[in-house]
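It would be a great kindness if you could assist me with a short task in structural biology. The matter concerns a single protein, recorded as an amino acid sequence and a row of backbone structure tokens. Kindly check, if you would, that the fold set down in the tokens agrees with what the sequence suggests. Thank you for your consideration; the sequence and its tokens are set out here:
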Amino acid sequence: KSGGDYDQEETPRSKTEGAVTVSYGETPQDNWAKAEEEFKDENYLAAQKFYSYIRNKFPYSAFSTKAELRIADCLFERARFLEAIDAYSNFARLHPTHESVGYATFKVGASYYKQIPTDWFLIPPAYEKDQAAVKDAARALKTYVDRFPKDPSVEDVKKLLKEVRLRLVAHERAVADFYKRIDKPKAYAGRLEVIRRDFGDVAVDDELLFEVALAYAVLRDGPRTKQALDELKQKFPASPRNVEGPLVLAST
């Protein structure tokens, strides 16, 4: 699957998540065939049993390493995302030269992404909740993009990474607006600065830079006001906000 396939609907549990009985084959090939059939039929727990059997019973077979990765896939499809993260991470660590390391690295990020809270009725929106999963997803997805720039899924993952980073921006913006409402100008300016400094690739536009300049002007911080206005002029020379820049700077 590509990065674009990972929406935030809950991954359905396997249709055989109850007690599962399987009949193992005599060879790794036999068990691999049975495992793949179960996986294709979305019987992920049964498939996982076969893959685990291959790994434990035939550790030196050509199917053992592939089974390790498939166990992680089963955990992911069963929505056991924390366990999937461990399994994918261990695969990448134990088999650093394997052709599927990029895939495993990506799936770590996808597993974190699946744990990002969604919005639902009558409770705080997602950007006001704990952002640990969002930060973990951003870090893991960026690791994939940086390490595997030529991987087939990288363009889709870049889009997913942008979405995750915009969620972090929404959180910072919500906190900044809160400080503005309660008249904490220094904290307000600080949160805007975080957006400007850490999210320049997805969130910095002429309006944000002008807002940063205004926030520092209120604090009578001339150097930082000028710095924000200079960046505004450099990056967005056609912005109408540049006309107001000298007036804002004069107010400091």
In short: DSSP finds eleven helices and no strands in the chain.
